[in-house]
Amino acid sequence: MSEVIKISLPDGSVREMPQGSTPGDVAAAIGPGLAKAALAAKVNGELRDINRPLEGDTELALVTSRDEAEALELARHDFAHVLAEAVQALWPGTQITFGPATDDGFYYDVKAPTTRDPFSMDDLPAIEEKMREIIKADKPLRREIWSRQQLIDKWSAEGETFKAEWAAELPENEELTVYWSGDDWLDMCRGPHLPSTGKLDPQAFKLMRVAGAYWRGDQNNAQLTRIYGTGWLNKKQLNAHLTRLEEAAKRDHRKLGQEMNLFHLQSEAHGSVFWHPHGYQIWRELEAYMRRAIDGAGYNEVKTPQVMDARQWEQSGHWGKYRENMFVIPDEVPNTEDEGPIVSDAAEWMALKPMNCPAHVLIFRQGIKSYRDLPLRIYENGCCHRNEPHGALHGLMRVRQFTQDDAHIFCTEDQIVEEVQAFCRLADRIYKDFGFTYAIKLALRPEQRFGSDADWDKAENELRDAVVRAGLATEEFGWEELPGEGAFYAPKLEWHLTDAIGRTWQVGTIQSDRVLPERLDASYIGEDGEKHRPVMLHRAIFGSYERFIGILIEHFAGRLPVWLAPVQAVVATIVSDADAYASESISKLQAAGIRVESDFRNEKINYKVREHSLAKVPYLLVMGMREAEEGTVAVRTLGEKEQRVMSIDDAITMLKEAATPPDLR
RNA sequence: GCUGCUGUAGCUCAGUGGUAGAGCGCACCCUUGGUAAGGGUGAGGCCGAGAGUUCAAUUCUCUCUAGCAGCACCA
Predict the structure, then answer these.
(1) Residue numbers belonging to the annotated binding site of A
(2) In Å, how far from its chain's centre is CA A481?
(3) From the CA of A116, how many Å to the C1' of B61?
(4) Domains of chain A and any CATH numbers
């Protein structure tokens, strides 16, 4: 072996270093500034510790805080370890388990010693303080290789039963790594880590909350306490993140829905929405928009039964694979006597539909279909009920009754790619109309599924093909494949929207399904005069009206575009002598199709301006005696301080223009 | 469904082992005013449901229920 190793650096230069040098040594050789800034290294593309000796000739890139993604990942991982160390320092006997980095921080799952209650929010300040101490102590983080037995012995001796269990399941001969923090604390970890705790900014993290979590994510296992933190490279980033969270809280659709009087939820119908007039106006506008879209795209709208016999759900497969999410109903006249059960043991079952697909197949099956009928696109604003776990319910985003913009395209094998591409174009147009950008992802076969592997290969390939050929399977569109995330009957293409503050929401989907046509015996007569099985494409763009409206409220922070705003204008009078003129103006506005309300109350104009601004009404039309005499109106646009005085006719023209839906412009 | 926290007026929230309070909203009165809160008076509560402890429970304990945050699951 030679005495020197050759290090290729990103700028193309090659540096010779003595055998056994570390990336840190290389940094030092390049310059003291870099030596100080270097946090870790990419060795042949793999992220590694700065002090881990290089093995032979390598390509090396030093990672500094400028490499934000890597630096954040390292910092968050280190914060997690410091968190665990702090908790054990404060409460000896605490068991530690796992602590990874997350999208905006880190967490660590711990189990409090039996001598105290599980950790709570009240403990967080003390833990934060201890973490700062550990960071300020600038403890070196040192990698060591241990054998499996060493690990098992150590964890067993210290009563770390979870760690011991985990270690015992690791491969026997693999080199396992531990990291020391100083000389007094260690955790087993694959690494890599920063060279010392002092590289962390003690002002760049905050512990956020505690929550229950299970050992290995299985609810049959021990309950642990998960301590969540958010972690960044510096205080400025942390503050920006905290501001973002505040912004998200302000946009919370549950809060805005209450304030704007759009809808409410109550325990007697938990998980189902009571739409108020203003909220339902948004719905109606979306429904009208979607009807224009599907009418123009060759769909046929239908309406299908809410309740079907259990035998039908058995045949479709839902009874077997989906029953725990279904509401079942006895098909029997209930007993009205005071005595005895309401329903007998002999009752047959029916169920509320959790999906629209079987009913659409039943429509397809009516009459004999020819290949000339295909593709046949059946659309429904389908109201579905799903018996969701109570803990999953969340405002409009996760409910038990929801209406999908659901359609099923029955087509031949040859038509699949074209139909998927047409759908991609339709979805693209619609999401852009609402101002969303999106990413497309392919959810591949789940463990629990119907159908042969060959069918799944085919289905996955054709979805992938369609997107690739449409040029959408690129980084720019966030293309990604998600193993195991498909539906039980088909793989899914998923559209993930990005909203105004950068959060993503899965809404649209298209799935190619060969299972359901088979199970429900759908067929068409081909050119050859023989019976063939159609392929069924399940697809939705809004996903559900409930959820999509929730997303819109948060995306626009309640300030919906004029065409969607439940109240597009409020006419507010300054003095009651202007009421007659205002009433007349309102009639004209209404005749022009503007959704306008009046505010003739005995309040000052300041008060009215404030109230309607907070209610996020796009236009406030102010009328006093001056306007009444001149036939004008003072228009105040939401978010602007200036007012514009114009004639009523001009105001109507302007409002009509502003209120035109994007697809009709 | 699991764990933790919470449930007091329409809304947001104080508070107490001796059956309750604020602000906003609402009603009425005065005020008719020019672009983000004019003044006064008043009405509103089985203190989430059930059980237990107690002379006495909205307050303490338990069970249930709903909400919230996570987990698990999903449009």
Answers:
(1) 357, 408, 538
(2) 16
(3) 21
(4) 4-64 (3.10.20.30), 69-244 (3.30.980.10), 267-307+354-555 (3.30.930.10), 569-664 (3.40.50.800)
